[in-house]
Write a structure and sequence with these properties.
With 658 residues, the protein is α/β, with parallel strands linked by helices. Helices cover 42% and strands 13% of the residues. It has 21 helices and 16 strands.
């Protein structure tokens, strides 16, 4: 009777102040996990709504399908995140009911799940800049210097509403979870209780087994990974299906590359695709080379390349670039990645980042590799890299030194803080002029790279231009116009310098920005960048039909100069139309190959999508099961490129010894 009275009084107390449910420890744990699963699901819906323009081609039914398939990945992430909480609540011992012990278990629950939700909400905005869920390479990015101490406050200022929604979710999580209380069992024997330990040991084993199955994503042979998402949708929609905690956990300490051997014989492999370039023997031209990399200069922003937009009324935001295109040889090119630290080694070293992190950040960054500077330096070239960012930003100074650049000019070398934009580095207008003056003192010939800065978030535009330069439909576009103006002033200055006419200029972008028009939101269009070769007074003029990518720049320049030695570059000479021109990239576990007017998505084992870009430029009709011959041909080729890239990087074979 006394026991019953205690039970009733405990129940009454629970109704008054202990929440909605006070009871079995396993049931309470499951309820809290289900609550977090619902919040992960809701955060995916918000991710979709914040990026509705990007996912605008998704039908309602397809979006719903992706939301619910995403629960498989949510459940996996949920169980991984909550391993400490689950373990503490399922251990078959009586001390788990101890009040202090339960407080510690709940601290794990709240802390880990709040951080997980934060990851999802950060990606709701950060996705616009990378077009993928954040993976573990973000920690390496922080390690090589990303000026996050200055940029995070700016992001919070610009996107404060996302922080508010995250805080609301945190309050909701804490408030609802606090209503689920653990009650100790009413009847337990003192000392050893065979029934208690027997039942709870069985429950522990059952729940441990179910958790392992949930973490693996099912009973299939291999656990689910980022690549698994590609089985359900296209690369463009993979980020919607995934969640950020899953992407972070699954790429943490993940082996960046795996050796593949689809082609057993080296000769067979080389016959399909080889990155080895053999030099010309027709005499070398000691011409200066100036590579200008414009931050986030998507092809979409260039008016002369988009005459059909807005019923022919589209002006674009690059009047100087438009004028220069008329005097050079232009290629419709595609970026090999979505970040600057992927673009720089692709452009300067001919190395695409066909892995979750960039080559600069990977475990292979210490490999022996070269660049256009490293190859030309022995021929007497002065080599220099210019970027107005804080020295150390994204590891550019370390990479360029390893790549063979003798001189690095950044914010420190500029040495005038009055031109600092307060967030990212020295304003383009002033830094471009500094670059011109510095180069004018170089001994010729030289190879120099200038990487712009101001069209990077937070899209700085000096006050004197705020009401002069046009704003567009995207926040970046006024800053694109400012960087284009700075480029025009740079050319206005250098055209009077003695080395100008003996210089080959290459102008391109490091990667694309957020897209507005539908084509520039497709899996192909989101990589579209300009590529211009310009030499004053030369016959390099017109618009080439040849498909180009960033890794083509180094072999094209070296061929133009008449470089005579062999070297490695995962691209082709664009001036040779007989070669198999293509573009390749990797994102969210899927490889993308553009070749022969087709676009193939490949998950490392098989093709998941195939589109005819001539008949279907918006990539609406997946032909992977309809055009077998074309699919097999492209699969054959992409396997050769991946095998050459993976195995050479793993084996440190990115150079050719004399």
């Amino acid at each position: 009777m006394a026991q019953r009275r205690r039970s009733r009084s405990s129940g009454k107390k629970g109704k008054k102040g202990s929440g909605w449910f006070r009871g079995n420890i396993h049931v309470v744990m499951v309820m809290k996990l289900l609550l977090m699963l619902v919040l992960l699901f809701l955060s995916r819906i918000l991710f979709y709504l914040f990026n509705l323009g990007y996912f605008s081609s998704l039908s309602f039914t397809e979006a719903i399908r992706i939301f619910f398939i995403g629960l498989r990945f949510d459940l996996s992430a949920l169980l991984i995140i909550n391993v400490p909480f689950i373990l503490m609540n399922t251990l078959p011992f009586k001390f788990r009911y101890n009040r202090v012990y339960q407080i510690i278990a709940n601290v794990f629950y709240y802390a880990l799940n709040i951080i997980a939700l934060m990851g999802n909400f950060v990606d709701s905005i950060y996705f616009r800049f990378t077009l993928k869920r954040t993976t573990a390479d973000i920690f390496q990015y922080l390690g090589v210097g990303g000026d996050f101490d200055k940029l995070i406050p700016q992001f919070l200022l610009d996107f404060w509403f996302v922080a508010i929604i995250w805080i609301f979710f945190v309050i909701l999580l804490v408030w609802i979870a606090a209503h689920f209380k653990v009650a100790p069992p009413l009847r337990t024997k003192k000392g050893f209780d065979p029934r208690f330990y027997g039942v709870n040991t069985v429950l522990f084993l059952i729940l441990a087994g179910l958790s392992v199955i949930g973490i693996r994503g099912g009973l299939q042979l291999r656990p689910i990974t980022l690549v698994t998402a590609g089985q359900y949708t296209t690369a463009k929609n993979v980020p919607l299906l995934l969640n950020t905690p899953f992407a972070l956990v699954k790429t943490f300490r993940n082996e960046a590359l795996k050796e593949v051997n689809w082609f057993r014989k080296e000769k067979e492999l080389d016959a399909i695709y080889s990155p080895v370039h053999h030099g010309r023997k027709n005499g070398f031209r000691h011409m200066n080379v100036m590579i200008i990399i414009m931050e986030s200069f998507s092809r979409e922003h260039i008016g002369s390349l988009n005459r059909s937009l807005d019923d022919g009324r589209y002006q674009g935001f690059t009047p100087f670039m438009d004028s220069l295109i008329r005097h050079g040889l232009y290629f419709n090119a595609f970026a090999n990645g979505k970040t600057s630290i992927q673009g720089i080694p692709a452009i300067l070293s001919g190395i695409p980042s066909l892995m979750n992190e960039s080559f600069i950040q990977s475990n292979y960054a210490a490999d022996k590799f070269t660049s256009i500077a490293g190859l030309l330096k022995p021929k007497g070239y002065t080599t220099a890299f210019f970027h107005g960012g804080t020295n150390g930003t994204m590891g550019f100074n370390s990479y360029t030194k390893m790549a063979g650049f003798d001189h690095y000019y950044g914010r420190s070398e500029y040495n005038n803080e009055k031109d600092y934009d307060g967030k990212w580095g020295i304003r383009d207008e002033e830094f471009f002029q500094f670059t011109a003056r510095t180069m004018n003192g170089f001994k010729q010939p030289f190879v120099a790279t200038l990487f712009s800065l101001s069209s990077h978030h937070p899209y700085f535009v000096p006050g004197k231009f705020a009401n002069v330069l046009r704003k567009g439909k995207l926040p970046i576009q006024q800053s694109i116009m400012y960087s284009d103006y700075s480029l025009g002033e740079f050319f206005h200055t250098i055209k009077h310098m003695p080395w100008y006419k003996n210089t080959l200029f290459v102008i391109t972008a490091d990667h694309t920005s957020e897209g507005y028009y539908p084509y520039y939101q497709t899996d192909v269009g989101q990589y579209a960048i300009p590529l211009l070769f310009f030499q004053p007074g030369s016959d390099l003029k017109g618009k080439s039909p040849v498909l180009a990518q960033q890794t083509d720049i180094m072999p094209t320049v070296l061929n133009y100069l008449g470089y005579e030695k062999s070297y490695i570059a995962f691209g082709n000479n664009l001036f040779d139309s007989t070669l198999a021109h293509f573009s390749i990239h990797y994102i969210s576990g899927l490889y993308g190959l553009i070749k022969d007017d087709h676009f193939l998505e490949f998950d490392g084992t098989k093709a998941t999508s195939l589109y005819d870009l001539k008949a279907d430029p918006m990539q609406r009709t997946n032909l992977v099961n309809k055009k077998k011959e074309e699919r097999e041909k492209l699969e054959f080729f992409i396997k050769a490129v991946i095998q050459q890239s993976n195995n050479r990087i793993i084996e440190n074979r990115l150079t050719i010894e004399d």
